[in-house]
Structures are given as structure tokens and as C-alpha cells.
Amino acid sequence: MSDQEEYASLADNISQVDVLEGQGHGMTHKCTDNDGQSWYETCTRWDDGRAFAFKVDTKAADYPYPICTLTGEWSLIPAPNHTQIAMTFNITAKSGLLNRLLLTIMVALFINVCDRLLNNWVVLMENNVAPSPPQANSELLPRII
Fold it and tell me: How far is residue 1 from each of residues 86, 87, 97, measured CA to CA in Å?
């Protein structure tokens, strides 16, 4: 989960991730979506093998989304006979009714992206191979919100 550049092969909304500087806490990387829009993220937590968190630079002049703040965290939670994968995002829309409406739509679509990402991570971790692209009728693994 902590391989930033591998993330692009697992998240179907991201075409490329480039680590720009550092490793672990403080690392910065650039994410590019499938439309060529990009943004920068900084690692705010690094617990090797267990969790990492990031903050998106939403203040950049070229940041493409109607988001004021965006942070996220991925973690592995040991449980009897298995490990749970947790993804948490905190998102605040830029001011204005239109931005809040756009963010609501984006979040609804992003839930499906997250489901597919979780499924891809499970396939990768269980089989040690990257999953093939998801099919429109593929079943997703259950998720806990």
C-alpha cells in the first residue's frame, strides 16, 4: 500500500504517480489523473508496513478540483485470521453552493473508485500480482464504512 508509484496501476482514476522528493514522512509526490490534471501531495504520517497519510496541496493555483482541504489515510489493521484495509478521507469543499454540489457528485463517484481500489489491493496482496483491469460486471469485495 505504501508504494506510491504502484498506486497508479491500482487506482483507475490515476494515470501516474511520481515521487518528487523524500521517503516516508515528508515525502512529496505528484498525482496525475486520466484527464492529465495533476496535483501534489505530502506524506503526513508514515508507519512502515502499517499506515500512511497524506495532505493534498489544494492551494496551488492549478489545483483542478473544487476542494478546500483534502487529507487521506490508508492503514492495515490486524484482526484474527485476516487483515483489514482502512481508507479514510477528510474533504471540505471550497465555498459556494456550486462547489458543494460538485463535491457531493465527486464523492458519490469516488466511492466506486475506492471500492475498486480496495479490491485491487486485496488481489495484489493475496496473489502478489497486479490485478487485471476491472470488468464492468466484476463483483467487489465487501467494504466497511
Answer: 11, 11, 35
